[in-house]
Amino acid sequence: MKIIKDLGTKQVGKRTQRFALVECPKCKVVEERRVRSDCSELCRACAMKQAGKKRASKEDSQGDTVKTSPYFRLYQIWRGMKRRCTEPNAMGYNLYGAKGVTVCKEWLESYTAFKTWSLANGYTDTMTIDKDELCEANNISPKIYSPSTCIWKSREENSVTNLKLTEEQAKACAKLLEDKLATPEELATKYNCKRRTILNRTSKYRTTKYKA
Questions:
Q1: How far lies 82's CA from each of 77, 90, 104, in Å?
Q2: In b/e form, how buried is each residue of 126-148, taking b as 16+ CB within 10 angstroms?
Q3: How far apart (Å, rounded) are the C-alpha atoms in residues 157 and 154?
Q4: Among the listed residues 67, 155, 152, the one whose alpha carbon sits nearest the alpha carbon of residue 117
């Protein structure tokens, strides 16, 4: 809560309350409000809007938030996808949201839309969602989770995609990195894979450290 001006105290019923001009961090509206430790930082309009979204989100979950639901795992995938792209304190945000990865508006606002797409596009409990293949194929950057850029893959398919380098190639790449004859980016281009794949697959064969 950003206090613009302290207005001092006023008598409210039998209590003395402190008032101030306060700026809402979301809409930047300045209004006179009571200042209390349990007050919302948002103005009344923004607080009501946020509460409405939370209610809508709960209603939109279709009961899949409970572990007994057959689609509990799917709901957790949707929730995790949103969190790592939008919440700075979430695990993995540094690899997703901080790098510009986003979720399309349709999926961000509606679990039902995500679930409908998933069930129509091959989702099972053995699948993982992948945005990289189609985003890279269509030169979309930063990457985005959306119906047109995502596919469901089996864990085996993802493992093959993520490996890409044979042991011999990994050793050769590690030597080039150690001798500073190539950069991770150059090797990623050469082998048509991610920089992260190069670093992960060569890590046990080199001593030189690189930032992830």
A1: 9, 10, 10
A2: ebebbbbebbeeeeeeebbbbee
A3: 5
A4: 152
Separation between Cα atoms, residue 53 and residue 47, nearest integer Å = 10
Domain ranges of the chain: 2-52, 65-162, 165-205
- One-letter amino acid at 82 equals K
Number of alpha helices (DSSP H) and beta strands (DSSP E) in the chain? 9, 7
Digitized pLDDT (tens) for each residue of the chain, 212 residues in all: 678 888 888 877 777 888 888 888 878 888 887 777 656 677 777 776 665 555 445 547 778 988 899 999 999 999 999 999 999 888 888 889 998 999 999 999 999 999 999 999 999 999 999 998 888 888 898 999 999 999 998 876 665 555 567 788 889 999 999 998 999 888 888 877 778 888 888 888 988 888 76
Look up residue 199 and give its DSSP letter.
H
Question: Terminus-to-terminus CA distance in the chain, angstroms?
Answer: 36
Residue 212 to residue 207: CA distance in whole angstroms: 15
Placement of tokens 């430790």 in the chain: 37
SS3 of 7-55: EEEEEECCEEEEEEEEECCCCCCEEEEECCCCCCCCCHHHHHHHHHHHH
Nearest to 42 by CA among 28, 57, 58: 28
Q: Which of 29, 30, 150 is nearest to 101 (CA)?
A: 150
